Amino acid sequence: VQPQGSEEAKAFVHALLKRSMPQVDDGTIQDMLTRKAVVLEHYPKKRTKQKRKKTKGFTAKQRRELRLFAIEPEQQRYSIFLPLHELWKQYIRDLCHGLKPDMQPHMIQGKLLKADLHGAVVTVTKSKCPSYVGITGIILQEFKHVFKIITKEDKLKVVPKLNNVFSLEIDGFTSYIYGSKILLRASERSAKKFKLKGTIDL
């Protein structure tokens, strides 16, 4: 940097260099000005990254205590959930592209195994526990190991998946689901690959 000759210019350049290179003394700065060009250095302030706080959801225990998924007795009526069943039927028709008569049964079965079953009308057709056989109703909630079903008699039944076979019918198609093969949450079941092979095990 070459000063223009005025005292103001010299003072400005000196002050600028002093701010830019605070670790260099005045003598060294003057020597640098008289003998060579100066490359001004910039020391940016280090920014401290603020850690984002992850929002924590409720634990399973807290959900139970708050009764977030509880169905109150006054809401346990079959008629209330009939519109949900109609929505489910339309959802399955769209999922299977209309449920045409010429569709292969195994194609429909594969889609039903991955489909959301909330709203489906199911019947327990086989069970190792005879008291479950014949229970028919709309699935209100699906958990990893059980279905919660509301019957036409307005009774809420908790039916385990294990050792039970469920049937569901829509537009003339009847499908059988082995509960022991779907011991998964609904979200996990939608991503699982099922082997469509018959089995005699409950």
UniProtKB/TrEMBL annotation:
SMART domains: POP4. Its main location: nucleus. GO terms for molecular function: ribonuclease P RNA binding. Transmembrane segments: none annotated. Gene3D superfamilies: Ribonuclease P/MRP, subunit p29. Keywords: Nucleus, Phosphoprotein, tRNA processing. It is found in: Nucleus, Nucleolus. GO terms for cellular component: nucleolus; ribonuclease MRP complex; ribonuclease P complex. GO terms for biological process: rRNA processing; tRNA 5'-leader removal. Component of nuclear RNase P and RNase MRP ribonucleoproteins. RNase P consists of a catalytic RNA moiety and 10 different protein chains; POP1, POP4, POP5, POP7, RPP14, RPP21, RPP25, RPP30, RPP38 and RPP40. Within the RNase P complex, POP1, POP7 and RPP25 form the 'finger' subcomplex, POP5, RPP14, RPP40 and homodimeric RPP30 form the 'palm' subcomplex, and RPP21, POP4 and RPP38 form the 'wrist' subcomplex. All subunits of the RNase P complex interact with the catalytic RNA. Several subunits of RNase P are also part of the RNase MRP complex. Belongs to the eukaryotic/archaeal RNase P protein component 1 family. Component of ribonuclease P, a ribonucleoprotein complex that generates mature tRNA molecules by cleaving their 5'-ends. This is Ribonuclease P protein subunit p29.
